[in-house]
Amino acid sequence: MSTERKSVSLGERWRREATRGVDDQRLAAALEALPSIRKPMVRIRAGSIRCEMEGSMGSIHEVSLQIRTLPQRDWNTLVRVLRRSKSIVQSLEDGRVPRSFDRLVARVIGEPLFPDARSVTFGCSCDLPEKPCRHVLALHELFARRLDERPWEMLMLRGVDLQATLAKVHQTEPEGDLPPLAFGVPEEPVLYPDAEDADLGQGLTTSQVRWLTGALSERCAQPALKALAALSSTPAEPPAPAPPPPVKTRA
Questions:
Q1: CB-hemisphere CA count at 13 Å for 71?
Q2: Structure pTM?
């Protein structure tokens, strides 16, 4: 029996977070309300998703989801690391958002690309008592379905300009200050494997970021690299032969 875990799409991840703790009856009501979303009026912007829904008796409900955009202070650092992560860049160019990119953002920027449910707020102009109401849940479901077809909209929601980021990644810049990749690999090793139970909230320490981006001085880096080279080129000494067993003599 295979123990390989099936990857979960961005849309399914969003759906799970949005419906955590919501009973089946309310979910069914949300699915019934889904067709009433006026599709041309769905607006996805940095930090918000807004739509209009047609209610009973011709009423129109304004529904919204809000989340803060990702901080940009360390984005240049992320770009430098992406230049050494060809598989992640290729996925982004293909319109996919791999879990490895989510982890990379979490460790360099300080929070993951994919938000948890607590960081998403909502609003609706209806007067229904339950919170979130079926209109908000319907908008969550609509966005989950869109993510399965357009995963890059997650980047748009978090305020990431994907095309500008890829353009910076492909800019030719001297990178002589970057440490060579270990063991001759073609790209920086992924910081976490694509597993469902990996910790996304863990950040790199300052020294780890400095090493990853080549910010260490030559004075620190060169002796370490020379020591590693010496270790790899020095043949291992053969083990010393075991002493012969003692000879037994008769009395």
A1: 10
A2: 0.70
